[in-house]
User: Which sequence fits this backbone?
């Protein structure tokens, strides 16, 4: 049986029944991933998500998602574990450990607050003006963040996405061909908790190949105010050549 991966745009699972598909083979099992169309890109470009949440509301939402992941009977968790075992060759114990790490990160409110405090000097700085020296400062979101994930370290993608959420940025997430499951499972769990939540609505998940026509990926990258790329220098140099206006981390 061929597994079909969804495309998520603006927190909504896209109807891809008429899309062409790209076939991947992982651990001798086939996966079909929908190929992005111009209509999909237009939908991405038209997204306007208003996020007036404060840091406490953001972390409370993530905590609620984490509680679902903590349950060993949560269907999304069970499917994720099965996918890691079947398609990525994980042992049952290692796959459970990955799911446990996701739940632990989401459920640790203090760790989430610490991410903001350590990165931005104050947990309050994204909500209010903070005195620093002779002036007041406030951290504002960059806008739309594109995340190019690596397949060999699933949790790097999770922390990348969480940092964007904590700083009120929208996310366009390109999964890796080596792991199309982690980001998809995470965002699907947001949908499970509250489909119309501002955080859920600010999430898009898809895949494209760098070895094929890059016209549509270039359009998607054109939406980016910042790009978070996990990979080697070849990939980073290629990104810089694709668009010069964006910040790459």
Assistant:
């Amino acid at each position: 049986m061929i597994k079909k991966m969804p495309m998520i745009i603006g927190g909504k699972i896209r109807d891809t029944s008429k899309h062409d598909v790209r076939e991947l083979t992982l651990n001798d099992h086939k996966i079909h991933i929908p190929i992005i169309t111009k209509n999909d890109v237009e939908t991405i470009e038209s997204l306007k998500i208003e996020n007036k949440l404060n840091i406490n509301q953001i972390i409370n939402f993530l905590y609620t998602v984490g509680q679902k992941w903590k349950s060993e009977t949560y269907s999304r968790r069970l499917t994720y574990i099965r996918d890691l075992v079947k398609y990525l060759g994980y042992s049952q114990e290692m796959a459970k450990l990955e799911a446990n790490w996701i739940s632990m990160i989401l459920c640790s409110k203090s760790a989430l607050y610490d991410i903001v405090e350590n990165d931005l000097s104050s947990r309050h700085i994204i909500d209010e003006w903070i005195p620093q020296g002779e002036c007041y400062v406030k951290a504002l979101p960059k806008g739309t963040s594109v995340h190019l994930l690596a397949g060999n370290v699933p949790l790097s993608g999770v922390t990348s996405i969480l940092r964007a959420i904590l700083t009120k940025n929208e996310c366009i997430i390109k999964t890796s061909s080596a792991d199309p499951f982690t980001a998809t499972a995470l965002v699907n769990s947001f949908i499970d908790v509250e489909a119309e939540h501002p955080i859920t609505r600010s999430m898009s998940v898809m895949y494209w190949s760098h070895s094929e026509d890059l016209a549509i990926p270039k359009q998607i990258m054109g939406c980016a105010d910042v790009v978070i790329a996990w990979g080697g220098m070849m990939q980073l140099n290629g990104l810089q050549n694709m668009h010069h206006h964006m910040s790459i981390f």
